[in-house]
Design brief:
With about 240 residues, the protein is α/β, with parallel strands linked by helices. The protein has five helices and ten strands. The protein has a five-stranded mixed β-sheet, sandwiched between helices. Strands 1-3-4 form a three-stranded mixed β-sheet, with no helix packed on it. Strands 2-5 form a two-stranded antiparallel ribbon. A hairpin with a 2-residue loop joins strand 3 and strand 4. This is tRNA-specific adenosine deaminase. Homodimer. One of its GO terms (molecular function) is tRNA-specific adenosine-34 deaminase activity. Its cofactor is Zn(2+).
Length: about 240
């Protein structure tokens, strides 16, 4: 393992711990420019290749890039097989109450109470700039806001783009505790992020190697590098605790 790969792996673990804290609600969203720069290259776990069903997938951390997945130290994953460690699927959220219009009256029933932040599936995401400085952080807010697109990844992209004044997030790395869905994977491609780092696999809705592989689709004009399975057990444990 090269010093660069070792340092990258160590950095990804540190970033994932930050994302876990955001997902658990134990860390406040950081303002743009907050956080520390990436640590110097140091020893850490190696990275290996991965891909969707039918490609090679690792027992742990995964790496793939614009030229497609490599084949180093990977084990075959048969068609339709689940990812190495099954993550807990998203729970269908309750529908947000409809806003009362002018015609609404007593017959419409009592108004629903405010949504709680802890009603959302605990997924956290953090975006880091090319220099390793944190740009934005967010957790799922679908239930809290009643917005079906308020996944952690989408919120982070919105916040960083608004603060930086541009939609292109070239050179940035998105770190998220759960494999992105199709919506989020598409948004990451459109935002031109350089790399995606995720923790737990999502075999039922994942779009970064499990069910689909949107981020590495060769038909698209941008393909971020993907590093999967970073602190996978810890990320999956947080989700399992929520669904108990």
């Amino acid at each position: 393992m090269t010093p660069a790969a070792a340092g990258r792996a160590e950095r990804h673990e540190a970033w994932m711990r930050r994302a876990l804290a955001v997902a658990a609600g134990t860390a406040a969203d950081a303002p743009v420019g907050a956080g520390e720069a990436a640590p110097p290259e140091a020893a850490g776990p190696d990275l290996s290749a991965s891909g969707p069903a039918g490609r090679a997938a690792p027992a742990g951390v995964v790496r793939s890039g614009p030229d497609g997945p490599a084949t180093t130290a990977a084990v075959p994953l048969g068609p339709g097989a689940a990812a190495p460690t099954a993550a807990v699927p998203f729970r269908p959220g309750a529908a947000a109450p409809a806003a009362a219009g002018p015609a609404a009256g007593p017959a419409a029933g009592p108004a629903a109470g405010p949504a709680r932040a802890d009603a959302d599936v605990p997924v956290g995401a953090v975006l880091y700039g090319p220099d390793g400085v944190e740009l934005a952080a967010a957790r799922n807010e679908r239930e809290l806001t009643g917005d079906p697109t308020a996944h952690a990844e989408v919120l982070v992209l919105r916040r960083a783009a608004a603060a930086l004044g541009r939609w292109r997030l070239d050179g940035c790395t998105l770190v998220v505790t759960l494999e992105p869905c199709t919506m989020c994977a598409g948004a990451l491609v459109l935002a031109r992020v350089e790399a995606v780092v995720f923790g737990a696999w999502e075999p039922k809705t994942g779009a970064a190697g499990s069910l689909w592989d949107v981020v590495r689709d060769r038909r698209l004009n941008h393909r971020p590098e993907v590093y999967a399975g970073v602190l996978e057990d810890e990320c999956a444990a947080l989700l399992r605790a929520f669904f108990r």
